[in-house]
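Bit of a strange request maybe. I'm writing a small parser for structure token strings and I need a real example to test against, not something I typed by hand. Could someone generate the tokens for this chain?
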Amino acid sequence: MPLPIPQIRPISDLRTNLNDVCELARESQQPIFMTKNGKASLVVIDCEAYEGQQRHERYVQKLREAEIEEKYRSESLTKQAVGDSIERLFAYWGV
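Reply from user aminoacidic:
Good idea to test on real output. This should exercise your parser:
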């Protein structure tokens, strides 16, 4: 799937066309790069898109942590040991 072409707008659009910038961010769900004097100044992104990106980053981080743990952990757990651990947690939480 090809990457979308980034939206680039002058920072003055925040003052003169704020509603258009907000609508574009909401509809595209992609970052909008704002420029000042021809140079990147800030990025505007819809809150839902931002939260989705943050969720994705957390998932990736958890996968990296699991890969590292699997690589360096010398022991493995049996299905029974995992089940026992879960049962102890549920008992502790009163579930």
